[in-house]
Amino acid sequence: MNKIYPDAVAALAGVLRDGMTIMSGGFGLCGIPTALIEAIRQSGVKDLTVVSNNAGIDDAGLGLLLQTRQIRKMISSYVGENATFARQYLAGELEIEFNPQGTLAERIRAGGAGIPAFFTRTGVGTQIAEGKEVRGFGGQDYVMETGLRADLAIVHAWKSDTEGNLVYRKTARNFNPVMATAAEVTVAEVEIVVDAGEIDPDHIITPGIFVKRIVPLVNVHKRIEQRTVRKRVAA
């Protein structure tokens, strides 16, 4: 089975449809599947539910899909840094389901592991727990959270072999590995593609069985969301 596709548009052909749920890896602008997001934008699909830690910024990441109003609902942890998101949400044009960050990560991991629900202390006694089952364990209250799955996961990896075994680089790993396991179809954009067997098995983070399609990146542009520097001290 050939998993290599010439570009992001080809890799998403026949997969995208209106109203689908998409998991999008990344944290801020780190490790986001930029080429795949742009291909989704070009496709024009709409009414999307997107599961992602955050919604990018106004002119990058998922912010591009907010500009074109292709996203109907976000399931996220943090949505600051994006004025477009704020305007659409306050105008009632965008639905948001907030999750504590660890809860969001565990909901995705649970979905990939076939676990329908779990209990956590995070959010007990807050709006997060409203409408959810609360149960006592060991003298403490825990709120039940459900696992998350998606129709499509788009992820960014540093290296892949032709069988789809993925290696991530440093903090760009973030949400990508758990999302890769929690969707019906996972498409990975990768910076380096090598032949099967060239990656040390101990270095593989996402096994290729989870990855259906691979997009080798020709140009990789990695933006810094908030550049913080200090003045150089004179010698």
Automatic annotation (TrEMBL):
Gene3D superfamilies: Glutaconate Coenzyme A-transferase (3.40.1080.10)
Signal found in the keyword field: no
Presence of keyword Magnesium: no
Pfam family, one: CoA_trans
SUPFAM superfamilies, sorted: NagB/RpiA/CoA transferase-like
Record's keyword terms, sorted: Transferase
Alphabetized GO MF terms: CoA-transferase activity
UniProt cross-references to InterPro entries, sorted A to Z: 3-oxoacid_CoA-transf_A, CoA_trans_fam_I, NagB/RpiA_transferase-like
Entry superkingdom: Bacteria
PANTHER family named among the record's database cross-references: ACETATE COA-TRANSFERASE SUBUNIT ALPHA, KETOACID-COENZYME A TRANSFERASE
Name of the molecule in the record: CoA transferase subunit A
Source organism of this protein record: Limobrevibacterium gyesilva
